[in-house]
Design brief:
mainly alpha; 11 helices; globular; transmembrane helix; ABC-type transporter activity; membrane; transmembrane
């Protein structure tokens, strides 16, 4: 397993696409999570419609938005970002890690020269999980830069979250990203390639999960079942951090996301073991 992990990690960190996805995550968190959000707060008119406007902090709603952009609320703001665009980037990373072997025709060579199929599958997934640690660090770096910039512009003291909240937020971010990455790896193994797997993954993440989130379901059992989907579990875990944290759902979300990580990993391994490369 160690040799499989080392080989897959070498390939993953040598690919330009890995660095591109990590850079896109950094820029998306910085741009959408802070720059555009602060621009909206800073340029919003006052509640009375006065042309000159007032300080955003003078208005309750805009004041809360501004508080979310400060360093002490960095963890909740980052989790909101990574449970959105971050999950798409992680899904694409998982698809590319497994699906590109089919597109390049290199899977046969790997199977001949190295260990068993299960070892190769888990080596790939462990390498993806390792890469996502760097993605989490990139997201937190973007959050630190963006939140400090807002604090400096607003001339307020910089107060960082506690160490426990930072560690918990980083682990939660990694778990969310890993869930979507292994889903992408499973889809790539299922469809034996990249294009269809990316398409199906994006349709599920952006369309189907969006419909579920906005559907007015009244049945308690059905509503609970829909709440157990990966996207809903990711949102539930993300909402368990910050000043408006919703308690009670974080433990269930962690268990569900862990179940998805293990389940999709095992399913990916079984697909690689049970099917011929050319089927």
């Amino acid at each position: 397993m160690g040799g499989d992990l080392a080989a897959e990690w070498l390939k993953l960190r040598k690919r330009a696409s890995t660095w591109v996805l990590g850079t896109v995550l950094f820029l998306s968190v910085l741009l959408f999570g802070y720059v555009l959000a602060y621009a909206f707060v800073a340029t919003a008119p006052d509640a009375g419609g006065s042309p000159d406007g007032t300080s955003p902090a003078a208005q309750p709603a805009l004041g809360e938005m501004l508080q979310d952009l400060l360093p002490e609320n960095m963890v909740s703001n980052l989790l909101a970002a990574t449970s959105g665009p971050g999950k798409i980037l992680a899904l694409v990373l998982g698809v590319m890690t497994v699906g590109s072997e089919y597109g390049w025709g290199t899977l046969k060579t790997i199977l001949v020269q190295r260990s068993g199929r299960a070892g190769i599958a888990f080596g790939k997934l462990l390498a993806v999980g390792t890469a996502l640690v760097a993605f989490v660090l990139a997201a937190f770096a973007a959050g630190a830069v963006g939140s400090c910039g807002v604090a400096l512009v607003e001339n307020v003291p910089v107060r960082w979250p506690g160490a426990g909240e930072l560690v918990g937020g980083a682990v939660a971010t990694w778990l969310i990203l890993t869930t979507w990455a292994v889903l992408g790896a499973f889809l790539a193994a299922l469809f034996r390639g990249t294009p269809i797997a990316v398409g199906v993954g994006l349709i599920y993440a952006l369309v189907l999960e969006g419909i579920v989130a906005s559907s007015p379901v009244e049945n308690g059992v059905l509503k609970g079942a829909l709440g157990m989907l990966p996207g809903q579990s990711s949102s539930s875990l993300a909402s368990s951090f910050g000043p408006t944290a919703q308690s009670g759902g974080d433990s269930q979300a962690v268990l569900l996301l862990t179940f998805y990580v293990v389940g999709f990993s095992v399913a990916t391994s079984l697909l690689l073991r049970a099917r011929d490369v050319d089927d």
